[in-house]
């Protein structure tokens, strides 16, 4: 017999929203006074919601989910629920199954229940291991794993008419937990939190009533759940060509190709025995993190699952014999930028080359990968970027740009190399001849990288749907101007407005890197430089990358060895007169006795010349270069590590010329 407080709680939970949510706040108090088990309460409330007959299925699902979350079920509660919930409708069984282990879920949703083992049988029972012939199962370091306890074994069965008995039986016999859905609305909600899904089988009846546009939207949304999940589509009801359906999935997952282990489109909905290898492969990939030792573990389980599955899949593709056993994965986290993304150096089995993984929110990863494919890949695909995601966790893998002296160490960034030149110069770590050689090599490297950036910026941006991330915004200054004058006056602000007006004429004309600074250039050797981090790539101003690089060198690493007025004259010479490196060194000898300034000057001149070359391709001129440089100088006032006196020298120099444009 249930006590009165339990009866009242059941009644309230099946009543209005106000009474339901008030009842949830009393759960803890109910626990202290009632002998009714949590699992019995869940079943009783669910039955009462059904009995009332006024509550839509979706509302029942929402309340049941909220209730189970609030009860914080123990392992025993979940075990009891996996047995008692068999009396509920399938839709509510699916809701409860999200809170169960794979073996409990298999028991709940299977028509042929798994018999419970007696205590005396457990010692002699042999664990079952499924081996995939195409992809070996995850390495196990602490003994075999019982098949029914393996995670990531959920298979979605999408069907309107429930004709999935044959598929369910085949999947259950092979250790998978099939869940049936008859509406995309319900599926969409569960996809948001589902991390145990390894495959999805779509019956023709599920697609039949959808329009062509609805099918496209459905496939795109499903594909964005996981790059590891195997998708099987009954092609008999598809209203798009099979090749176009493959393109939809491929584009949604930002892939170059879509192999058979990711998608299949047969002419019916019956899963065949040989196709199980694809389901097993997906499950094994997503289980790798359970049996793989992560050295220096600094990641959550979900990140570990996606990261290790991605690295394993990548390593597998590099081998031709099809055999790969992952015993350990070393992770070394690197210093990243300001975006909040984690950057990890990954090495499999402590051998071979490393890869770099960027871990971030899925929407950011997908945006970056789409930009890379659309704007960068045709220009330079040496990083061979690939996106992998599962649920809400995502990574991009890149080929490591390694230090030439050590193939498992990342190449240093340009900023570090320039600092090394300065430190060697100050502390005498290198003799003069070796220091000069290093400086000359860096000059040659800057020549090459500015030329490469120019070639990128010469390309016209013809993809309008991408937002422009790389151009400087002056909006923040309109707020800060009220409190800070930066040692500048109204004329300089007027010049800023005029420069903005000129800048907008070519604001989205070119393809740009978008985040050009000295930590986004890797130096494999002094003359071999590589760009990284294309998250901001896309449409932008043709001069923004190279003008930003010029200022990063001048304002960040250049050493002002003379008074500020000298650098006003220097900026006139480099910006208006387009003086060469040799001419500038002759006119300002006091500033260029230092090797670091010698390198920075070479980079500034090369960046300026290539910016003007890129502008010519878009019908621009030196006027557009000046406008971009002026706005970026203002932006540099806010950046840490910039020398304010040099920044002001740029603004003071360019402002009068820009003001003259209005006369």
Characterization of this structure:
- With 663 residues, the protein is α/β, with parallel strands linked by helices.
- The chain is 50% helix and 12% strand.
- The chain contains 27 helices and 17 strands.
- The strands form five sheets. It has a six-stranded mixed sheet. Strands 2-1-3-4-5 form a five-stranded parallel sheet, with helices on both faces.
- Helix 7 packs antiparallel against helix 8 (102-109), helix 15 packs across helix 16 and helix 22 (544-557) crosses helix 26.
- The longest helix has 26 residues, at 432-457.
- The relative contact order is 0.06.
- Residues 111-149 have low confidence and may be disordered.
CATH C-level label of the largest domain: Alpha Beta
Straight-line distance between termini: 93 Å
Kindly report the average pLDDT value: 84
Shape field: elongated
Tell me how many strands there are: 17
Question: Helical stretch count?
Answer: 27
Largest sheet: 6 strands, mixed
Helix percent reads: 40-55%
Poorly predicted runs are 111-149
**Strand arrangement across the biggest beta sheet:** 6-7-8-9-11-10
Task: Provide the CATH topology of the largest domain.
Answer: Aminoglycoside 3'-phosphotransferase, Chain: A, domain 2
What's the Cα radius of gyration?
A: 31 Å
- The amount of beta strand, in percent, is 5-15%
Condensed summary:
This protein is of the alpha/beta class and 663 residues long. It contains 27 helices and 17 strands. It starts with a helix and ends with a helix.
Features of the shown structure:
single chain; Phosphorylase Kinase, domain 1; alpha/beta; elongated; 27 helices; Rossmann fold; 12% strand; 663 residues
């Amino acid at each position: 017999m249930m006590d009165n407080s339990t009866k009242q709680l059941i009644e309230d939970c099946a009543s209005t929203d106000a009474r339901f949510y008030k009842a949830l706040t009393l759960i803890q108090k109910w626990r202290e006074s009632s002998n009714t088990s949590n699992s019995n309460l869940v079943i009783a409330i669910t039955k009462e919601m059904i009995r009332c007959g006024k509550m839509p299925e979706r509302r029942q699902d929402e309340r049941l989910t909220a209730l189970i979350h609030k009860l914080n079920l123990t392992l025993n509660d979940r075990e009891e629920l996996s047995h008692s919930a068999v009396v509920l409708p399938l839709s509510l069984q699916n809701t409860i199954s999200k809170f169960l282990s794979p073996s409990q879920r298999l028991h709940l949703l299977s028509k042929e229940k798994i018999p419970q083992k007696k205590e005396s049988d457990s010692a002699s029972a042999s664990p079952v291991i499924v081996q995939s012939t195409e992809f070996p199962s995850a390495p196990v370091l602490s003994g075999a794993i019982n098949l029914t306890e393996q995670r990531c074994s959920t298979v979605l069965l999408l069907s309107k008419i429930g004709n999935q008995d044959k598929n369910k039986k085949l999947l259950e016999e092979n250790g998978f937990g099939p869940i049936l859905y008859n509406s995309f609305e319900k599926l969409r909600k569960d996809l948001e939190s589902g991390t145990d899904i390894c495959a999805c089988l779509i019956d023709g009846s599920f697609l039949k009533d959808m329009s062509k546009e609805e099918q496209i939207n459905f496939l795109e949304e499903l594909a964005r759940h996981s790059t590891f999940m195997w998708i099987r589509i009954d092609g008999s009801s598809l209203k798009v060509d099979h090749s176009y359906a493959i393109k939809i999935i491929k584009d949604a997952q930002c892939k170059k190709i879509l192999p058979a282990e990711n998608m299949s489109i047969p002419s019916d909905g019956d899963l065949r025995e040989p196709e199980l290898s694809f389901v097993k492969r997906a499950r094994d990939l997503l289980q790798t993190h359970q049996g793989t030792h992560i050295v220096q573990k600094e990641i959550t389980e979900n990140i570990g699952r996606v990261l290790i599955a991605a690295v394993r899949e990548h390593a597998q593709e590099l081998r031709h014999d099809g055999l790969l056993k992952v015993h350990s994965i070393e992770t070394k986290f690197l210093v990243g930028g300001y975006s909040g993304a984690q950057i990890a150096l990954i090495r499999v089995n402590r051998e071979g080359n490393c890869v770099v993984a960027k871990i971030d929110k899925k929407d950011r990863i997908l945006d970056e990968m789409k930009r890379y494919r659309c704007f960068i890949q045709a220009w330079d695909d040496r990083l061979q970027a690939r996106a992998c995601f599962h649920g809400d966790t995502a990574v991009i893998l890149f080929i490591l740009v390694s230090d030439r002296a050590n193939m498992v160490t990342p190449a240093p960034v340009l900023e570090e190399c320039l600092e090394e030149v300065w430190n060697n110069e100050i502390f005498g770590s290198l003799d003069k001849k070796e220091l000069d050689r290093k400086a000359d090599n860096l000059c040659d490297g800057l020549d090459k990288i500015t030329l490469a950036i120019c070639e990128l910026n010469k390309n016209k941006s013809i993809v309008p749907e991408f937002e422009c991330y790389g151009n400087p915004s002056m909006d923040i200054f309109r707020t800060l101007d009220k409190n800070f004058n930066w040692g500048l006056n109204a004329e300089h602000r007027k010049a800023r407005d005029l420069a903005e007006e000129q800048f907008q004429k070519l604001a989205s004309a070119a393809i740009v890197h978008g985040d050009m600074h000295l930590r986004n250039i890797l130096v494999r050797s002094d003359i071999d430089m590589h760009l990284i981090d294309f998250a901001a790539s896309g449409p932008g101003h043709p001069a923004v990358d190279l003008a930003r690089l010029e200022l990063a060198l001048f304002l960040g690493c250049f050493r002002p060895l003379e008074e500020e007025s000298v650098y006003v004259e220097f900026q006139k010479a480099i910006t208006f007169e387009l003086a060469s490196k040799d001419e500038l060194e002759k006119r300002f000898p006091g500033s260029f006795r230092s090797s670091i300034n010698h390198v920075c000057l070479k980079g500034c001149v090369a960046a300026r010349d290539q910016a003007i070359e890129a502008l010519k391709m878009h019908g621009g001129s030196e006027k557009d270069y000046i406008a971009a440089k002026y706005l970026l100088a203002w932006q540099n006032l806010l950046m840490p590590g910039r020398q304010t006196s040099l920044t002001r020298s740029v603004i003071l120099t360019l402002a009068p010329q820009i003001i003259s444009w209005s006369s």
